[in-house]
User: Which sequence fits this backbone?
């Protein structure tokens, strides 16, 4: 068989892929995983009793803006590396920007607070479980993104896993904020960030195994 004939026979049954199919699949995985995590937060942990009023306060908005911005930036990176022909991700440093801004807010917070409340601002009342809860809540979302990735054939597997893990961590931190009463910038930039970093680390570790094709 000639090479031209072989190529024609292999491509005879191929179907045209709808435009933005990769984005829709990733967003579907994100949505399904987020709904599962939301169910755990609502029915397993419970919402803050003062949630309607708290959501209108600046500290709560700050916390959500931080986790949402990290999640969105990581999701953009996830969509970028989902393609098998994805070029190197040269703008990944932008993810550091929300962290740097919140660190500045934390420094200002500590500078204007009395010395005897610094520890309370940093540790809050839930530092022991906060990071681990964020990391665990990210698992359903991470699973949804991995499901999407396995149909998209990424080639940069460790990068794809880390991006998916960070996106899942950002979404999980946002949903966990519906339960968590902590709103100190110092607390959030320490323990929420640690939870998201753990999620990204798990993604980088498991990515090459789960996404291999």
Assistant:
């Amino acid at each position: 068989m000639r090479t031209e004939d072989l190529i024609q026979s292999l491509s005879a049954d191929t179907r045209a892929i709808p435009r933005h199919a990769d984005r829709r699949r990733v967003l579907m995985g994100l949505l399904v995983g987020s709904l599962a995590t939301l169910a755990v937060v609502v029915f397993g942990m419970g919402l803050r009793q003062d949630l309607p009023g708290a959501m209108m306060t600046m500290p709560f908005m700050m916390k959500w803006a931080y986790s949402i911005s990290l999640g969105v930036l990581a999701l953009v990176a996830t969509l970028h590396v989902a393609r098998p022909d994805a070029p190197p991700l040269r703008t990944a440093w932008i993810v550091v920007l929300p962290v740097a801004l919140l660190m500045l807010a934390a420094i200002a917070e500590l500078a204007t607070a009395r010395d005897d409340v610094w520890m309370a601002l940093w540790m809050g009342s839930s530092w022991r479980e906060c990071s681990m809860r964020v990391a665990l809540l990210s698992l359903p979302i991470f699973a949804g993104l991995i499901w999407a990735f396995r149909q998209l054939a990424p080639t940069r597997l460790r990068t794809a896993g880390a991006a998916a893990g960070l996106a899942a961590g950002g979404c999980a931190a946002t949903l966990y904020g519906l339960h968590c009463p902590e709103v100190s910038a110092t607390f959030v930039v320490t323990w929420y960030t640690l939870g998201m970093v753990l999620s990204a680390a798990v993604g980088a570790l498991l990515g090459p195994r789960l996404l291999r094709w």
Observations:
- The two ends are 28 Å apart (CA to CA).
- The chain has a mean pLDDT of 87.
- The chain has one domain: 21-210.
